[in-house]
Structures are given as structure tokens and as C-alpha cells.
Amino acid sequence: METRVDVELYGAQTGNCIRAAIALEEAGVRYAVRHVDLARGEQRQASFRALNPAGKVPVLVDRNDADAPLVLSQSNAIVLYAAEQSPGSLLPADDPAQRAVAFERFFFFVTDVIAPGHAAFYLKHKRMPEAAAALESRAAHRLAEAERFLERSPFVAGDRFTIADIAAFTIVNAMSATLGEPVLPNLARWLRDVAARPAVARGYRAFATDPA
Ligand SMILES: N[C@@H](CCC(=O)N[C@@H](CS)C(=O)NCC(=O)O)C(=O)O
């Protein structure tokens, strides 16, 4: 008999969705993938808007409490949800200082790198190449600052893998062509190590439609 999965992740093969899937994988949350075809506009259909009126992926649905299912949008809220499902797995539970640094680095990547990176993508799409290039360059400069996080640590917030590494992974991976290994050797080494984690590899492929 098939076991029921109470958590579903709606999404597509995009950085935001992959980040959410990696967090669920790393926290050991069992979930079912629900593909949303963005090219066909499924995110704008009424059935999907009933989950997220903004018409955006990812969306997580947790039916563990049958009376009050949790419907969560925002990839980074899903990352924090995953961390809470498995205390200690993605945020140090026993060291308040390390935990605070994990939050600091998490928000560094979310607000200082991912946000301008996404805004640049939007401006490119709107055919505003100069404005897009300015934001891309800002995101790249901020990202280069992360090189120092890795000078003496294997992970971006210290000696443990945390939510900060998950926030960093998708954007560093997307920008890796412009990073340049000799210029940012620590980030290049970290990217290889994180990509090799089995849970990260599974999350990365969660929405891939072609076989691995
Ligand atoms: N801040 C949101 C952004 C969500 C978002 O922009 N999702 C994109 C895919 S990465 C989307 O659904 N695009 C489809 C559309 O806008 O029609 C998050 O982190 O989840």
C-alpha cells in the first residue's frame, strides 16, 4: 500500500523552487513534487491561484493537520519551515551565536544577492539591458564579499551546513559562469562540495522533467 504524503511542493525548475526542494531534502521532510508548467501559464489558472493568489511558485501545502492545512508561498519561508521540521538539521540548535550568524548570512544572500539578481533578470526580460547590467554587477560585487565567509570555514556560516548555504547555493550556481575560479577560489570549492551533497543533488533534480 502506498504511504500517504502529507506535504506537497508545487513548482518548476527554477532557482526559487530548487531552493525550497533542497531545504526539504536536507531536513528529511517527505514530500511529493507537483509540477507547475510555467510556460503554459498553469501558475495563473484559478486552481493554482486558490493556493497562491500571486500566481507564483513555489508553494508548499502541509496537510498534517487535516483541519487546518498550511499553505505557504515564498521559497525562503519554505526553507525556514523545513528547518523547523527537523531542529538542528539546518540551524544550530545548541549554539545561539552560530544560529545568529546563520540567519545573518541567510539574509545576506536573500536580500543582497538574490533580490538584485532577480530584479536584473526581470529588467532583461523587459528589454532594459543597462539597468539589468547595473543590478547584475551589484549582485556580483556583493556575492564576491562572501568569499571571506569561507576563508576559514567549510560552510558560509561556519563549520555546519545551514539555511545560509541553501540560500547561497542556487544563486552561486546560477552566477558561477561569471565568478571565475581563480578570482573566487573559496566559493568555487564550496560550490563543488555543496553540489556533491546527496540531498542537494536530489533537491536540484526535484523538478527536472528529464531523467538524471
Ligand atoms: N519571492 C518569491 C518569488 C516567486 C517567483 O517569482 N516565482 C517565479 C518562478 S522562480 C514564478 O512563479 N514565475 C511565474 C510568473 O511570474 O508567472 C519566492 O522566493 O518564492
UniProtKB/TrEMBL annotation:
<feature type="domain" description="GST N-terminal">
    <location>
        <begin position="4"/>
        <end position="90"/>
    </location>
</feature>
<dbReference type="InterPro" id="IPR004046">
    <property type="entry name" value="GST_C"/>
</dbReference>
<dbReference type="InterPro" id="IPR040079">
    <property type="entry name" value="Glutathione_S-Trfase"/>
</dbReference>
<dbReference type="InterPro" id="IPR036282">
    <property type="entry name" value="Glutathione-S-Trfase_C_sf"/>
</dbReference>
<dbReference type="InterPro" id="IPR036249">
    <property type="entry name" value="Thioredoxin-like_sf"/>
</dbReference>
<protein>
    <submittedName>
        <fullName>GST-like protein</fullName>
    </submittedName>
</protein>
<dbReference type="InterPro" id="IPR004045">
    <property type="entry name" value="Glutathione_S-Trfase_N"/>
</dbReference>
<dbReference type="Pfam" id="PF13409">
    <property type="entry name" value="GST_N_2"/>
</dbReference>
<dbReference type="Pfam" id="PF00043">
    <property type="entry name" value="GST_C"/>
</dbReference>
<feature type="domain" description="GST C-terminal">
    <location>
        <begin position="95"/>
        <end position="212"/>
    </location>
</feature>
<dbReference type="InterPro" id="IPR010987">
    <property type="entry name" value="Glutathione-S-Trfase_C-like"/>
</dbReference>
